[in-house]
Design brief:
Structural class: mainly alpha
Helix content: 40-55%
Number of strands: 3
Radius of gyration: 20 Å
Order of helices and strands: HEEHHEH
Distance between the termini: 36 Å
Number of helices: 4
Shape: globular
Length: 170
């Protein structure tokens, strides 16, 4: 049965805020140090390269940024609401990762220059070259989402009631 309130509110807030701050600091760094097509080769195929995404994941849906932003607001509200039923610390960390990442990318859409409400572009800068370019918020959302799926799967198995065996009556 879901609990009436969030069991680990400080953990949720701490993780979400940490992701948000790290995301925004690294995006600020990328904008200032990777401007003018400057690329930093890191290791193997991984490089840092500045890109602006006005669409959805993997730069799909270009031109639908306003709708994607509105969807992100809905996701943040749903995450905040459903976080009340998360009982485990791992689930709370996962929720904080997704929440912090969603708010980080939503902030880009709201506050980065663009065409009106939700017209800003998300700043991406980690370019593995064999995968679409992404940022810290994207990584947090993916890792948090995977953890949430694992947590829900493991929790539902643990919470299933043991079968009741009826004893024969004599």
């Amino acid at each position: 049965m879901p609990r009436p309130g969030l069991r680990h509110p400080a953990l949720l807030l701490g993780v979400a805020l940490s992701v948000l701050v790290l995301d925004q600091v690294t995006k600020h760094w990328a904008i200032s140090d990777l401007a003018d097509d400057h690329v930093i080769d890191v290791i193997w195929t991984i490089r840092f390269r500045l890109a602006f995404n006005t669409g959805a994941a993997f730069s799909s849906g270009t031109g639908f940024g306003k709708f994607i932003g509105l969807g992100a607001i809905a996701i943040v509200v749903v995450l905040l609401w459903t976080s009340r039923s998360v009982g485990s610390k791992v689930g709370t960390v996962a929720m904080g990762l997704v929440l912090g990442g969603a708010i980080g990318n939503l902030g880009d859409r709201l506050f980065r220059s663009g065409d009106g409400f939700m017209g800003g572009a998300v700043v991406d800068w980690i370019d593995p070259q064999f995968w679409p370019i992404f940022n810290v918020a994207d990584a947090a959302i993916v890792v948090g989402g995977i953890l949430l799926v694992l947590t829900v799967g493991l929790t539902s198995e643990e919470e299933e009631p043991a079968p009741v065996h009826e004893s024969p009556t004599a």
